[in-house]
DNA sequence: TTATTTATACCTGTTTTCAGGTATTTTTGC
DNA sequence: GCAAAAATACCTGAAAACAGGTATAAATAA
């Protein structure tokens, strides 16, 4: 099974973490650490020249935020598996990282065996979470799920059309309704979600998975 | 380890699937099937009277869509672990289910051993995926990640404020800018994302994890 | 240092949205 | 069958957004 060891890079602004991870992973034969960086910019220029199979990425960085960096990495090098390595234990943060192309999410309290196992799983093309992250993901906050207004069929329909950039006259024509009717539905949507305008409406609807 | 077997319910509009799952799970001592339903409505009324530890939920249903049903289930009974069981293999679909409170996602080509393992993992309070689902999750579509316009610091700032429901005058005051300047940024945002109005802008920005 | 991008600001006119209502006809649930 | 909810439609006036420009200072990259 020893063809070529997988290349691994680490981005973390704490040198101590960098040191620790290196020590943990040096005696793993199947993994070769090819670079350690304390800034996103430095890593990106490295990535342009070198192949990286796995990236361990801290989310909080001095120059850029990890979520955007993750997306940039995947856009430049889609085959690089990005594993977020973070203290952030909010469910929404984990979801955002995954949405932006991360192959996994590891909490920093991870054990060394678990770390290696997760890297292996990522290398084999699967999403992976540390135990702690799995537990967080299984516990959706009730507030996220409750307090979601109940929409009628028509309201959902119109919500989607609004989100697609359609204006009231557009929607009225498409659904063969009076523009005044569409306005009423729009107003009810804004009222039900307790927001001020469509911008906030679309944001909340999108975050709650209604679009 | 045999205190009380976990209660499990199944919602799927194909009776054959219902039969098959029942057969697969009857000889598992730690799991007790307490109900099988072919419609979301029927299950919801059952859930009001009975405790359900795990729900195997098909996404495509005649009366409601599984994503919304999942949210309703979690709102009514937060301790019920919902495992999506589906043929849908789109990454976005999986993410939506998770965002709406699902504890896991299983593709229907799952093996019986894997199914039991996933149910056990869900019962122990962790998110879980079938092998196939893990692979899909690890492969973000490139189109999702590329083609994202590059925004300046100011534009990001204003994008967030717009998403929060702030109007141009609001934003101008908050950032000590001329409303006309804010209008320009707003216009540039709409142009960069190639959309018609803020509604579409916020939708796309939200889906790309920029909010 | 020069060229480009970014951030700033302005102008005009049209369209759309939003706030504040009222009101009738269908559905749907009990 | 009756009550409630949903879908329909209307009205007015103010506020905001959008389309279509132009233009200049400051910062940044080549």
UniProtKB/TrEMBL annotation, chains A, B:
- Determine the domain of life of the protein's source: Bacteria
Q: Which residues form the Response regulatory domain?
A: 7-123
Q: In this chain, where does the modification 4-aspartylphosphate occur? A: 58
- Pfam families to which the protein is assigned, alphabetical: GerE (PF00196), Response_reg (PF00072)
Molecular function as annotated in GO: DNA binding
> Does the entry feature the keyword Phosphoprotein, yes or no?
yes
One of the protein's GO biological processes: phosphorelay signal transduction system
PROSITE patterns tied to this protein: HTH_LUXR_1 (PS00622), HTH_LUXR_2 (PS50043), RESPONSE_REGULATORY (PS50110)
Task: Enumerate the CDD domains for this protein.
Answer: LuxR_C_like (cd06170), REC_NarL-like (cd17535)
Q: Which InterPro entries match?
A: CheY-like_superfamily, NreC/VraR/RcsB-like_REC, Sig_transdc_resp-reg_C-effctor, Sig_transdc_resp-reg_receiver, Tscrpt_reg_LuxR_C, WalR-like, WH-like_DNA-bd_sf
Q: For the HTH luxR-type domain, which residue ranges apply?
A: 144-209
Key words of the record: DNA-binding, Phosphoprotein, Transcription, Transcription regulation
Name of the featured protein: Two component transcriptional regulator, LuxR family
Q: Which organism is it from?
A: Chitinophaga ginsengisegetis
């Amino acid at each position: 099974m020893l063809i070529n060891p997988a290349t691994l890079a680490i981005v973390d602004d704490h040198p101590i973490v960098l040191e620790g991870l290196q020590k943990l992973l040096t005696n793993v034969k199947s993994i070769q650490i090819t670079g350690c960086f304390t800034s996103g910019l430095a890593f990106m220029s490295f990535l342009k020249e070198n192949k990286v199979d796995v990236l361990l990425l801290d989310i909080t960085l001095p120059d850029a935020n990890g979520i955007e960096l993750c997306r940039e990495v995947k856009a430049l090098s889609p085959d690089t598996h990005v594993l977020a390595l973070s203290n952030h234990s909010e469910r929404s943060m984990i979801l955002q990282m995954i949405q932006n192309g991360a192959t996994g999410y590891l909490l920093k309290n991870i054990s060394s065996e678990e770390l290696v196992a997760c890297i292996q799983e990522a290398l084999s093309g699967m999403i992976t979470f540390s135990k702690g992250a799995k537990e967080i993901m299984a516990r959706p906050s009730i507030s996220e799920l409750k307090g979601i207004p109940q929409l009628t069929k028509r309201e959902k329909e119109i919500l989607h059309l609004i989100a697609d950039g359609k204006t009231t006259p557009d929607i009225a024509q498409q659904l063969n309704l009076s523009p005044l009717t569409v306005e009423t539905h729009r107003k009810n949507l804004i009222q039900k979600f307790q927001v001020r305008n469509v911008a906030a409406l679309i944001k909340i609807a999108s975050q709650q998975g209604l679009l």
